[in-house]
Model the fold of this input.
Amino acid sequence: MPDICPNCGLPTELCVCNVLEKETEQRIKVYSKKAKFNRVVTIIEGIGHDDLERTAKSLKRILACGGTFRNTIIELQGDHSDTVKKALISIGYKESNIEVA
Ligand SMILES: [Zn+2]
Done:
C-alpha cells in the first residue's frame, strides 16, 4: 500500500501539496547584472502579478532610479542590490522572503 496524503488523498508520490505550498509562498530574488551597452541593472524576481506595478513604482521612487517591469520581473537601472532589500521591506515585503544573490 502506498502512503496516502491526508490533504488531497493521492498517493504521496503523486501528491503535489508540498509543491503548491512552496509556490504560493512568495520568494523574491534580487540580483544585479550587466545589461546592454555596459549598463548595470538590478533585477527583482517573484513579485506577484497584482503587486508588480505598484512595487515597481515604489522602488523607483525610493531608490530614485528608472526602471521597467514585465511578467514577474522588475528591472531597475543601476546596481541597487545592496539597498533594494531595505526598500522592499519598507513597503511591506517580508525580509525572510527576500533573497539577495
Ligand atoms: Zn497531497
Q: What stands out?
A: The first strand starts at residue 28 and ends at 34. Residues 52-63 form the longest helix (12 residues).
